Amino acid sequence: MAHKQISAGGVVYRRGREGLEIQLIVDRYGKVALPKGKMEDGETVEDTALREIREETGAVGIIRAPIDIIKYTYEHRTYGTVDKEVHYFLVEAVGGTTKAQAEEINAVEWHDADAAWERGKSRLYANNVPILQKAMSMLEHFFTA
Asked: For residue range 97-112, what is the model confidence (pLDDT) as tens digits?
């Protein structure tokens, strides 16, 4: 039986001086990504998402909506086959100081929506692209409704 792992994270946005800005991270492998991490005992997926975003990027956020859940399998040297489930949320940054978590993150970047999409669509992990796309659709709806 496969080991199950649950993680959570989000697409973080803020209302900047120039309008809507979206956060992307560059992970320790040099890949553009969305902040996320493993659930700890006693946490909900929402708790996990907000904690991981704060730890990895310094942003203090509020969950505005669920985006989606992605599932995949990978091989771990200790656990063998791992069934991973990642819950993504749309998170508004309402405080904190932008700071990359030294051990795990090389950089935290803020981009306007167009630049975030341009950077993300070809540089994100493949399973993050539809998450970013859904988040941008949701934001477009929120800010034009």
From this structure: 999 998 889 999 999 9
> 55-68: b or e for each residue (b if 16 or more CB lie within 10 Å)?
ebbbbebebbebbe
DSSP state of 124: B
CATH number for the 3-144 domain, one of 3.20.20.70, 3.90.79.10, 3.40.50.720, 3.40.50.1980? 3.90.79.10
User: 34-89: per-residue pLDDT in tens?
Assistant: 999 999 999 999 999 999 999 999 999 999 999 999 999 999 999 899 999 999 99
Q: In whole angstroms, how far apart are CA 122 and each of 26, 53, 70, 87, 114?
A: 13, 22, 19, 22, 13
Neighbours of 4 (CB within 10 A): 10
Structure pTM?
Answer: 0.93
